[in-house]
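Researcher: We are triaging several targets before committing to wet-lab work. For this one, the compound of interest is zinc ion. I'm pasting the protein sequence and the ligand SMILES. What I need is the predicted three-dimensional arrangement of the protein with the ligand bound, expressed as structure tokens, so it can go straight into our comparison scripts without reformatting.
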Amino acid sequence: MKSAIGIDIGGTNFRIGWVREDGAVLCSDKKPSEALCAGGKAVDLLAGEIRAFMEANGVGDAAAIGIGFPAPVSSDGKTVFPCPNLKNPVEGFGNVDVVSRLMESTGLPVAIAKDTDMLLQAEITVRKTGPQDIVTAFYFGTGVGNSVYYRGNMLRGAHGSGCDIGHIPVLGGTRTCGCGKKGCIECYASGTYLASLWKKKFADCALPDIFRVHEGAPELADFIEACAIPVAAEVTIFDPTLVVLGGGVLEMEHFPYAELTEKIYGHVKKPYPAEAMKIERAMAGKDAGIRGAAWYALAHAL
Ligand SMILES: [Zn+2]
């Protein structure tokens, strides 16, 4: 059975795993992303980490390497957009032909994509999504991550920056977004905003308890409403066969998931796409990033 190396690079940690085609993770490791940020060029440091992982775990026959980055990837699938939370003073990943250089230094075919494309790849592989299906996926974490699988392809747009729905503008929005714009929906619907709201208004309980202790607070209802809007907007555009919802905010123990899906339904036009709309939680689990990256590599690098 074929296997691949899957890598999931985040702002804080990166995970690397040897994954079989059937999804079994044969071995994996987690390291601080700082290891890619100092002491040499980011691509060379990553190549060193890959070689060390393969040697330490006796990885002999991986067919390819797949890597998910916390930034969009150019539409030709070779270059990463600058990663603001992975700065490297020598040379970062941004605007570098990561694929050609890693293929040269590892001798294996390489495929890269933004992290949410890899998470969605895991969902469509686990769910055996058909070639005619349309799946929109939303990950409410630090920001609002989004990917769309459209009948066999991950949509990227002309330059790679498509399907980034956290940055749609909202009417009357005044907050400044990390992207530099004002009024992006992410400023109202992300974990970052939830944490700032907690600090300002709800710090009498621990952040993970906010939805339990302050159930029914109007600020939290507004937050759920803000999460529903980008989902409903994209459902309106794509009329998908499946909507996947995930991310750290939704995984909070007392997150009012039913309230979110009701609000999404309320904002979607009847009878269609609302009546046929299928919303499910992300199911691919904690290894989704590395499994998705490995599956993506087997599908796109060979
Ligand atoms: Zn923005």
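Researcher: Any quick observations?
Model: Residues 167, 177, 179, 181, 184, 186 surround zinc ion (CB under 6 Å).
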